Amino acid sequence: MRRYVFVMGTLAWLTACSGSGATDSAVCQDVVSRYCESEECPQVADKLLPGEGCAASLLERTGCGAEDFAFSTPTRERMLECRTPFVQATTSTGRPPSCADAAGFIEACPDVAAFFRGEPPPP
Fold it and tell me: Origin, by domain of life (predicted)?
């Protein structure tokens, strides 16, 4: 029974907001939500230039607040890859990622960071 619970829990974690049921809009909004929960971290406070209201600013800048949002650059797969540090500790929002994870997101994914800043991807 414990093995079943472990396997099912692991499976749920791996598919959270990444399966075919999650729209591109939902994936993007999840990343925005998790990132903005860490905005108190000095390493990330202004790295994405969130302005007034972190989530509202990033959703408007990227367009991912719209139901019909679809990834192009970065791709959905790239966004999910970059989202990994945010979901390692927990699959639910409401618990901010560590400052190290949020800073790692910016450093490891300059193309995704540029997307959130409204800039073209780096060469």
Answer: Bacteria
